[in-house]
């Protein structure tokens, strides 16, 4: 998605995958969810840091691509 929406070269990346034990996760399991839907501790938290130069539309399109 970053390659497509931010026009980043394929070999330009820095990724970290860090496991956390469930006792270190603090979150509201139903925040912004409807009905009886709940989050579990089996989650993936994605954090993307980008410098200036990305438009709001690029950021929205990237988020939409990741979330679907």
UniProtKB/TrEMBL annotation:
<dbReference type="InterPro" id="IPR014347">
    <property type="entry name" value="Tautomerase/MIF_sf"/>
</dbReference>
<protein>
    <submittedName>
        <fullName>Tautomerase family protein</fullName>
    </submittedName>
</protein>
<dbReference type="Pfam" id="PF14552">
    <property type="entry name" value="Tautomerase_2"/>
</dbReference>
<dbReference type="InterPro" id="IPR037479">
    <property type="entry name" value="Tauto_MSAD"/>
</dbReference>
